[in-house]
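Teaching assistant here, posting this on the class forum so everyone can see the example we discussed in section. The complex has two components, and the goal was to see what a joint structure prediction looks like when all of them are supplied at once.
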Amino acid sequence: AAGVIQSPRHLIKEKRETATLKCYPIPRHDTVYWYQQGPGQDPQFLISFYEKMQSDKGSIPDRFSAQQFSDYHSELNMSSLELGDSALYFCASSSLNQPQHFGDGTRLSIL
Amino acid sequence: AQTVTQSQPEMSVQEAETVTLSCTYDTSESDYYLFWYKQPPSRQMILVIRQEAYKQQNATENRFSVNFQKAAKSFSLKISDSQLGDAAMYFCAYRRPNSGYALNFGKGTSLLVTP
């Protein structure tokens, strides 16, 4: 079965640079979620989109923005990167009230 | 805001034995969903089991079952016949009922399975 696809799998950036993470949800899933998981931490919710509209917002920094496109894929844009942004970034997708299924994550390292 | 508490940072179980992971949560809502996710060393997040709050019957998925006590706001995971592949971090999570709402995770329990 098709899963959530995230790209890239690994990304190395320097401080103050920008990064764009992409997420392709499971076909026919209408909701996309972004989570950030720091080392040894539980995943923290950033933002979600339902039918291309923002549906919920968590602890997403103002330096980050996201959107969901007409084909339902989503992008998380991160600017002015800081050392503390180093983390595993998960995208998840779901439909209706079904459970969220996670992608394999993008590991972002800030040097 | 809803909070999820996992009071056991680490647990250990012998192969073929049974282990129970604890989870409590705090909410003022009557309808919600509860989940257990598994995160092995590969760091993937894998759904183990889910429970709808309006269902009194405890969910079961093969060797995994839950003990859902709504009044006590408790949601424990029982793993029977433990296998080496069960070794992972286990996260309990809460979600409000409607689509688009986030998962609130507990801090996780690291499960070690010994031969």
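For the discussion questions: The two ends of chain B are 41 Å apart (CA to CA). The CA atoms of residues 9 and 109 of chain B lie 5 Å apart. Think about how each of these relates to the inputs above.
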